[in-house]
Amino acid sequence: xxxxxxxxxxxxxVHAVSLEVRAGEVHALVGLNGAGKSTLMKLLLGMLRPHxxxxxxxxxxxxxxxxxxxxxxxxxxxxxxxxxxxxVTGNLLMNATLRGVAAAQRRAMVDEAIVEFGLGEFAGNRAxxxxxxNRQRLGLAAVLQHWxxxxxxxxxxxxxxxxxxxxxxxVLRERAENGAAVLISSHHLDEVARVADRITVMNAxxxxxxxxxxxxxxxxxxxxLVLHDDETRGETTGQHL
Length: 241
What we know:
Number of strands: 11
Order of helices and strands: EEEHEEEHEHHHEHEHEEH
CATH superfamily of the largest domain: P-loop containing nucleotide triphosphate hydrolases
CATH architecture of the largest domain: 3-Layer(aba) Sandwich
CATH class of the largest domain: Alpha Beta
Radius of gyration: 19 Å
CATH topology of the largest domain: Rossmann fold
Oligomer: single chain
Number of domains: 2
Mean pLDDT: 94
Shape: globular
Strand content: 15-25%
Number of helices: 8
Largest sheet: 6 strands, mixed
């Protein structure tokens, strides 16, 4: 992203954001509710169009990026997509087909994803009867099973139990180690510190600083950054926060 802005009535949105997610790294985006994380991710994925600035995917402007490039994206924003009347296996096969995976490779890929995400005992169950945690596992398996080059996940640990969170952490590290560029958003600083190579803080639609994943007292550092930004903006606009 280069100087990307997208505003809504009232002035909320994303303001002049520049962000690069590098191949081979897990980049975490953290911020309070309403900071603009989901809007930023939707702009990266072409789900929203910026009012100004440019967004590129693998060097290609997303406005003209060809379908084969988009097939190399794995994304989950807000809620996992699962067809309720399809089984777990059926959903994964459908996702593999939509991403252009060759027919001869689909079944092996799906079988591997079922094992990787611990969905074996639910493979024949329809998605509509799954618990919220297993629906999240299914959604994550669907977007990561084809080993995408570009991964964008909004609050991916939502509804996951501790075991599922550990599975996701291991999968993301493995994808990054194999060259994927991974962007995740989260409210859980302790969890992202275990998986992220970089942590960027967002507040009021802008990127305001970074945190060291290896540092102690991450929460204290996070809130200090946010408070300083709020106070600075208050001084600039003449508001008292």
